[in-house]
Write a structure and sequence with these properties.
Alkaline Phosphatase, subunit A; globular; 11 helices; alpha/beta; nine-stranded mixed beta sheet; 18% strand
């Protein structure tokens, strides 16, 4: 018996498997599956003989803009994540007592990754502090550019979290939990509000050139929510999104025809399987990718940025170029309606990020020097465009650092999740204020202590989302970013 393959008489003379492969055009790795709900496909009246043409213009995305629950002050968020844990006592939380006790071994309780310690050698600040702005805020010489923006910034000096370990602390800062599998902050924002621009992702993540943070994509996952709400990795060099370009020789008209035919064939497969949305979600991701092929390259093209903007962000300086490009790109994305942008400073391990266990000076000089001018440039650029009031900027890491040396020799500091600094600017946040305090050595928060969930509640509140009412039903509970027990915003900065 002959086993010669005879292709079926399918669309374009292709088998369904060939059809899937070609129509994908390399979109498989785009983190946008589930961009559209399966109910769209179920609502399309395609006849079995294909007499009703497929109309891609009728897609209704779950990322379509939604009305906020509360009066909104911010439309978008830019989260500047200093991965590894910047030292609060060396940046924005001056402790004169550390200067006095520098080099002395004292009795002090600290809580780091190595557990509890009752004694340690004090490491005094390695940078001088100066007063800036009308508010007179003291900022170290690590951030001379950001220091010029203090009247637009609210500093929160009494943050605390539950874990001094990078992996779980990152998850806590991003999702409000120390365990993986929960939606992150960007997912909650896009779930609650959608995105103004449906030709671009609603939630974008940009990583450091040295790599991503520990736990990887768990930090921008949508967890138990549909995949449409997870973060999309965007690059400032080369293809903005990997595998976005179509295969060689594929024209737009050919691709449109293939996608329409693919959707029609899969609709026939799906109508008897309405409880399974995976197929519709996969095809929907092709639709968004098709749109992004035209719109993403323009959004990330910085060629039309004038010289004064390049100077403001430090784009022509080799040291600040990479982070500066990401900050400019973040501004361009929120201008185009992207809801949530997260930029990582630092990646990989050890001194590739802010994790200053050994040489504190070398570590923080590098990372602050890479980011200081671009961050200040972002604040000033948004302000001069009239966008700062509707764009919320958040700065910080997963925790801070200890006031004492980690090792017998050296200036490195261990992790400190019991007292650290975050700051916020724009988006209706009060400028020139500082709230909360750590003790005289900066080892733990003592007054007006704010958990990470309070920070999350503040971000949601400014976006017009009620932190204690925004929920997603999963595992028998109305799950919330701030936990089922809820959390209040940091009212002092609103």
């Amino acid at each position: 018996m002959s086993r010669e393959h005879k292709p079926r008489n399918n669309f374009c003379g292709r088998t369904r498997r060939e059809f899937l492969w070609e129509a994908g055009g390399g979109f498989g790795s785009v983190a946008l599956a589930g961009m559209l709900g399966s109910d769209f496909f179920a609502s399309q009246a395609h006849a079995a003989d294909g007499t009703t043409p497929f109309d891609s213009s009728q897609f209704v995305s779950p990322l379509a803009p939604k009305e906020p629950q509360l009066p909104a002050k911010a439309k978008s968020v830019i989260f500047l994540f200093m991965y590894g844990g910047p030292s609060h006592v060396d940046t924005f939380d001056r402790k004169p007592e550390l200067e006095r006790l520098d080099g002395k071994t004292i009795e002090v309780k600290t809580f780091g990754r190595q557990g509890k310690k009752n004694q340690g050698r004090v490491v005094g600040p390695k940078w001088d502090f100066q007063k800036y702005g009308q508010c007179g805020k003291e900022v170290s010489d690590l951030f001379p550019h950001v220091a010029t923006c203090v009247d637009d910034i609210a500093f929160i000096h009494s943050m605390y979290a539950e874990s001094p370990i990078h992996g779980s602390a990152l998850l806590m800062m991003n999702s409000g939990r120390i365990l993986s599998g929960h939606p992150c902050l960007g997912s909650w924002a896009t779930y609650g509000l959608g995105s103004v621009n449906e030709n671009l992702p609603g939630f974008v993540v940009m990583l450091d050139p040295s790599g991503g943070p520990i736990s990887g994509a768990q930090n921008w996952t949508s967890g138990y929510m549909p995949a449409s709400y997870q973060g999309t990795l965007l690059r400032t060099k080369g293809e903005p999104i990997l595998d976005l370009e179509p295969v060689g020789g594929m024209t737009r008209s050919m691709q449109r025809r293939l996608l329409d035919g693919l959707a029609e064939y899969n609709h026939q497969h799906e109508v008897t399987r309405t409880s399974n949305s995976n197929l519709a979600a996969r095809i929907a991701s092709y639709e968004l990718a098709y749109k992004m092929q035209q719109h993403a390259p323009e959004a990330v093209d910085l060629a039309d940025e004038p010289q004064h903007i390049r100077d403001l962000y430090g784009l022509d300086n080799e040291r600040t170029r990479d982070f500066g490009q990401k900050c400019v790109l973040a501004r361009r994305l929120v201008e185009r309606g992207v809801r949530f942008v997260q930029i990582y400073s630092g990646g990989n391990h050890n001194d590739h990020n802010w994790d200053a266990h050994g040489d504190l000076e070398a570590n923080h000089n590098k990372h602050a020097g890479d980011t200081d001018q671009p961050i200040a440039g972002l604040i000033k650029d948004l302000k001069q465009r009239g966008m700062l009031e509707e764009t919320l900027i958040v700065w910080g890491g997963e925790f801070g650092r200890q006031p004492t040396a980690e090792y017998e020799k050296g200036t490195g500091r261990d992790h400190n999740a019991y007292g650290f600094t975050m700051w916020m600017a724009g988006g209706g946040i009060k400028g020139g204020v500082s709230v909360g305090t750590t003790d005289e050595l900066g080892s733990r928060a003592v007054d007006d202590r704010f958990h990470v969930r309070n920070l999350h509640a503040t971000i949601l509140q400014q976006l017009g989302l009620a932190p204690n009412r925004l929920s997603y039903f999963f595992a028998g509970l109305d799950q919330k970013l701030v936990g089922v027990e809820g959390a209040e915003p940091i009212w002092q900065v609103i």
